[in-house]
TrEMBL record:
GO terms for molecular function: protein-lysine-acetyltransferase activity; zinc ion binding. Residues 46-85 form the N-acetyltransferase ESCO zinc-finger domain. The keyword Zinc applies. Residues 15-39 are annotated as: Disordered. Residues 188-249 form the N-acetyltransferase ESCO acetyl-transferase domain. Belongs to the acetyltransferase family. ECO subfamily. This is N-acetyltransferase ECO1. Residues 30-39 have a biased composition (Polar residues). It is found in: Nucleus.
């Protein structure tokens, strides 16, 4: 356990035990003695120890997100290693149960079942990049939608989502006022997470993915409107995107998607 930090002065050692390590230095000037004369304003200047480094500041790589100090050999090496690993593109591999729901000459959107090995691999890989727990991301067994480049098979975007049926309150029937019947309710899409590769952002990848997720509902045989999307605690950027995608602005809050259901009116 680390030693506690003390704010009381230590008892001075006896003179006989003191070991001089350097010649006495002149006392530092006090604020009053260092004050400039003739009414000149005092200025403060930050000093640095120049030990040969080329930079005294930290920067964050916009691609891999690592914060490091340029010019420091150890930091530079760590950044190169992390950058190569973090920016390595995810590659799609076809498998059993995968369904292509949209495609054009450049890309396609593929729906992957939750229990497919490709879904497990990509979920673990992309969860680390988003700073999420892979177990939490797949807790509700959501399906995975992938935006895949046709030639390279690189994955540029992904959405974890599932259909949820929101039941309305039971309404009393005419024959039995004390009894009620449950209407079928509304089918919502709970969006667990949305990921888009940094180099592909602001190119409509996320919007195209959500449009595919809203595709044909097997139970209702119709396309769900955008207002049926529910999101799990989006970040500030995610909330801004959700509002723009839903055509809302200001303080609008989209429906919330939780492990137990969708909170919607």
């Amino acid at each position: 356990m680390a030693a506690p930090i003390c704010f009381t002065r230590k008892r001075p050692r006896p003179v006989a035990e003191s070991i001089p390590v350097a010649s006495p230095q002149p006392a530092l000037p006090t604020a009053s003695s260092a004050a400039p004369r003739n009414g000149a304003s005092a200025t403060l200047r930050q000093s640095f120890l120049d030990l040969g480094q080329r930079s005294f500041h930290f920067v964050q790589c916009p691609s891999c997100g690592l914060t490091y100090s340029p010019g420091q050999p150890d930091d530079e090496a760590l950044h190169r290693q992390h950058h190569a690993k973090a920016c390595r593109p995810a590659v799609y591999r076809a498998g059993k149960g995968h369904t292509t729901v949209w495609s054009d000459a450049d890309a396609s959107i593929i729906q992957v079942p939750h229990d497919a090995s490709q879904a497990q691999t990509l979920t673990a890989m992309l969860a680390r990049e988003m700073g999420l727990d892979a177990a939490w991301l797949g807790r509700t067994r959501p399906r995975l939608w992938l935006y895949v480049v046709q030639e390279s098979k690189h994955v540029l975007g992904a959405v974890w989502a599932e259909r949820r049926l929101v039941r309305l309150a039971a309404q009393p029937s005419d024959d039995h006022p004390t009894q009620g019947h449950s209407p079928p309710g509304h089918s919502h899409v709970g969006v667990r997470a949305v990921w888009v590769r940094a180099s592909a952002r602001r190119r409509g990848v996320a919007s195209r993915l959500l449009e595919a997720v809203l595709g044909v509902d097997a139970a209702l045989s119709c396309r769900l409107p955008r207002g049926r999307l529910a999101f799990t605690d989006p970040t500030a950027d995610g909330l801004a995107f959700a509002r723009a995608f839903l055509g809302q602005a200001g303080a609008f809050e989209p429906p919330r998607y939780t492990d137990t259901g969708v909170q919607a009116e």
